[in-house]
Amino acid sequence: MQKTRRKPPTMNNRELSWLAFNERVLQEAQDLSVPLLQRLRFLGIYSNNRDEFVRVRLANLVRAAQLQGHKEIVLPDGASVREILRQVDERMNANRKVFMETYAKIFSEMEERGIRMIDEKRLDDAQREYCRNYYSAVVSPRVVPLILRRTTKIPFLRDGDIYHAIKMSSTRSKTARYAIMQIPISSSCPRFVVLPSPEGCRDIIFVDDIIRLCLDDIFFMFSYKGIAAYTFKVTRDAQLNLDDDISRSLMEKMKNGLENRMHGRPIRLIYDVDMPGDLLELIALKLGLKNKEGFDAGGRYHLMRELMKFPSIRPDLEDPSPQPLRHPYIKQSSGLLNVIGKKDILLHYPYHTFNHFLDFLRETAIDPKVESIHITLYRTAEHSKVVNALINAARNGKKVVVFLEFLARFDEAQNIDNAERLQKEGIKVIYGIDGLKVHCKLVLVERRERRATRGFAYIGTGNFNESTAKIYSDFGLLTSESSIVDDVRGVFDFLLAHRPLSCAHLMVSPFSMRSQFEKMISQEIRNAQKGKKAYIHAKFNSLTDEKIIACLYKASCGGVEIRLIIRGSCCLQAGVPGQSENIKVISIVDKYLEHARLAIFHNGGDERIFILSADWMTRNLDRRVEVGAPILDRSIQKTLRGVFDLQWADNVKARDLSLLCNRYVPRGGEESCRSQMALYKFYSGA
Known about the structure:
Elements: H1 14-30, H2 36-68, H3 81-112, E1 115-117, H4 125-139, E2 146-148, E3 162-169, E4 177-182, E5 192-194, E6 202-206, H5 207-213, H6 215-218, E7 226-236, H7 250-262, E8 266-272, H8 277-287, E9 295-298, H9 336-342, E10 345-349, H10 355-366, E11 370-377, H11 385-395, E12 399-404, H12 412-424, E13 428-431, E14 437-438, E15 441-449, E16 452-460, E17 472-479, H13 482-497, E18 507-509, H14 513-529, E19 535-540, H15 546-557, E20 561-566, E21 583-588, E22 593-594, E23 597-601, E24 608-612, H16 618-622, E25 624-630, H17 634-648, E26 654-656, E27 663-664, H18 675-684
Parallel strand pairs: 1-6, 8-9, 11-12, 12-13, 14-25, 17-22, 19-20, 20-21
Antiparallel strand pairs: 2-4, 3-4, 3-7, 5-6, 7-8, 10-17, 11-15, 15-16, 16-17, 18-25, 19-23, 21-26, 23-24, 24-25, 26-27
Helix pairs in contact: 1-2, 1-3, 2-3, 4-5, 10-11, 14-15, 17-18
């Protein structure tokens, strides 16, 4: 008798799942309960996410399609690369239409409230004079027009910048003259300029349109009957390649790699749909884009991520953030090390102030008993207070060792700057491990107490970045528990000297994290099969690893209740008969970016709870150094249990991820629960 071939488990495609996540961001821009200017900024977040998707994920697909030739490459979800490229293109086009409709609607609502976006043709005389003066004083020194000829090579056009393509129609012949010009955008030359306005109004103009107003002043030396500017931008492949020259330092290779990335192959040309065909053809020819491959027609304005920086001109139309709370165990002017020496402390940003972590570093920097500080850095703020505290520690005679991961995508240049600053102060900086990206968030402080050395550790889920800590939700554990500290010490020994790593409590990838998760999932299955209560409750940014998904499917079929909160990509399909009936997945997209990772296993009634730097992604489990810390303190266990339950109860900002439908979780007759606001009350004791 012939065996029936078992149907492979079904999975969501990673790229389509990611686009579904960005659609949830777009939903926030459409949500009328969100304050108006906050909705505008969600459009900026959506646009920024979309640009990164094109530079990284779409670029990977395009590269795979080009490499495969005539051979069809099949992805883990069963679809071919070409089929996914087609679906991605369709989805992005559909989302673009929704974006533009939402954009127009928000601007219309703004105008109803007296906030008017006006272009160069709607200026009154006083505003026109203001714009010309503004151009002369602020914009003109930053503008470099370049004449574009068919016989000359186009100047390099940077990824992430926007340009005007200018056409000057001739007065004497059919031949036109062309030029390109970067639109300068910086903190000293912002994208949006607030104009002198009539009473009761706030008029704002794009700097793009100020340049359009002054085109005659820029090109006065040419003779033409008409002149017009059309905005465009180029998106390039963001792959970072490092050469194999062993005579060069890693920092030199990084600098060269970043320079090469800036000159990466163009993936897309996004242009004003009104751009004349001859001008578009010329730009595409110079960029090497053929057959309209990667052409993306849009509106008059591009680089809409700048909407995140829209001027704060109406507080009543903003979504004010509550003041971050002090942890109840941390008193002002009290020694943090004394507090941590007695009890573990869990910080949850942005509900708790990130200043607690900065104070921890500042205190260790000047404490005469502290001998050394070890830290891993992945992403930092631009003018990092964390880096400043480490420099201060070195100046106070502490041994400071920084393991700095250069390969933090799009933050490589910042990390190079940090490395140079730290090294100038005599701080030992270690860059990377060959083949492994160091993504864990660890601090180890060694302090001399009573003729012995006592360790203090910080284990986090997010970056040591005081800027993003205001808007990213993350956990940080401060502890002096000797068994945990010993494990942290072991991780640093591995990072610095590549010594064998064996931990009593910490889960560390790529060594033990995957196997420990698999063992805990298997234990829940065994408990369920014995008729015992069994569950897995977890919160991650992404769930894309095939093996973990297969384990969760097996657990679901074995009777384990599984609740997952996944913010971004989720390849697991929930609620599929015979595969995942016992799995429910939601996603929360709200004011704060949900970045904290948390895993809870029932474990026969003695819950095992972990906070982690890793997501359930193959790269995190197999190709990165990540750390998951068990929570041993009973009161903190109770807190984290309460955090998960509150977020699971969200029926305002939670979406059901079954089949990537993005439907809001129904409220039914339940009282509304917006978990981020509920968490603030939870921590404030209100």
